Amino acid sequence: MNETFGKLLKEIRHEKNISQRELALSVGVDYSYISKIENDRLPPPAAETIIKIADSLKVPPEILLANSGKVSNDLKDVISNPEAIRFLNTVKQMNLSNAEWQSLQQQLKSLR
Amino acid sequence: MNETFGKLLKEIRHEKNISQRELALSVGVDYSYISKIENDRLPPPAAETIIKIADSLKVPPEILLANSGKVSNDLKDVISNPEAIRFLNTVKQMNLSNAEWQSLQQQLKSLR
DNA sequence: CAAAATGTTGAGTTTATACTCAACATTTGT
DNA sequence: ACAAATGTTGAGTATAAACTCAACATTTTG
């Protein structure tokens, strides 16, 4: 059930019928790097590179980011607040389900 | 209003009346490293080192972590979920106040 | 005031991150 | 079949992260 970053990327790229070379070109990295990532010979790229990849493949970045262990600068900004960290620690302890996350999203929106 | 990591650490350490050498010893780093961090000559340490520092100083880690730009492995785990990332992105757009964060904490607890 | 404690500085080290380059292997289209 | 496209591999590079070590300066205290 725990898919690697590489396998996931390869799958998405295949769905989109794009070659490693095309993707690499549009992202701005060497194509051999894409190959290594897809075969899990190298760890996932930097968060900002993952976002470029997602943009190129026209998929939501969080799908790839979530599988990467990397945190984007945007998210680091959000976490630059003690309350945010406390919140996330509580969340961790509770081990939220997907449904619960979405419920929270609702609460969030109805906050304003 | 934007205090540096170094100044904050120095303040807390002084409040606790602990020397750089004591702190360094108990954390397991060189004392000169503490000095450089406190004077912002070097960037904040790794997240896990920051946590050790907070433990040694007996303060909640999130106070220091929030000012560091670093993300602990614990938090990285929480963010290994697309829903979590989506949630945090929404939060970012909304620029939540402290009060709102706490309100969310409440909602979170009342979720179970 | 002297010595012990504490703090600062410059220079270096080790390890990890984030890739590139060149060569070769495999697959695909005609 | 054969060439163009695509994918894989090994080796290397450049930069940053996360520190250490040794020397010296400053402050504190008996």
UniProtKB/TrEMBL annotation, chains A, B:
GO terms for cellular component: cytosol. GO terms for molecular function: DNA binding; DNA-binding transcription factor activity. The keyword Nucleus does not apply. Signal peptide: none annotated. Keywords: DNA-binding. It holds the Pfam family HTH_19. Residues 9-64 form the HTH cro/C1-type domain. The keyword DNA-binding applies. This is HTH cro/C1-type domain-containing protein. The lineage of its organism: Bacteria, Pseudomonadati, Bacteroidota, Chitinophagia, Chitinophagales.
